[in-house]
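Database export, one record per block. Field names are fixed; values are copied verbatim from the stored entry.
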Amino acid sequence: MLNFVMRLACVSLVSAMMVAPASAQDAESLEGHWTGIIDEPGSIPQYTLSVHINLDRNGRPVGLVQYDAFPCAGVWGNAVKRERGWTFDETIVVDTRNCAEHVMIELRPEGNELVIRLGPSTLTSSGRLTRRPNGN
């Protein structure tokens, strides 16, 4: 009987270790290459955003983002899991004169898409991102 209980305890422990926490599972669902059209008030009313999202060594999502219309590129970091999605800090690191250097990003999964909001609260842009097949 003791052997049976020990085996059952081992199986339970291994199963628990194999199941990722909810936030880690949510983070994994963001991995991939996403693109979409962003609507923004201003002189360029629409533009394309492209982002590659991966997990860092701690299992938190990070991204490399590119804005083709401006052009500029940057990184998404400091990911925080929220009730219905994630927030990121965006820092532009390539062609900083063409884009806002620091922006807050909000992502909310909705079906097979990510609903995105960008910007300070005074000038918010928004759109929907779709995962590109095979991570391309």
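Remark 1: The CA atoms of residues 36 and 129 lie 4 Å apart.
Remark 2: The two ends are 54 Å apart (CA to CA).
End of record.
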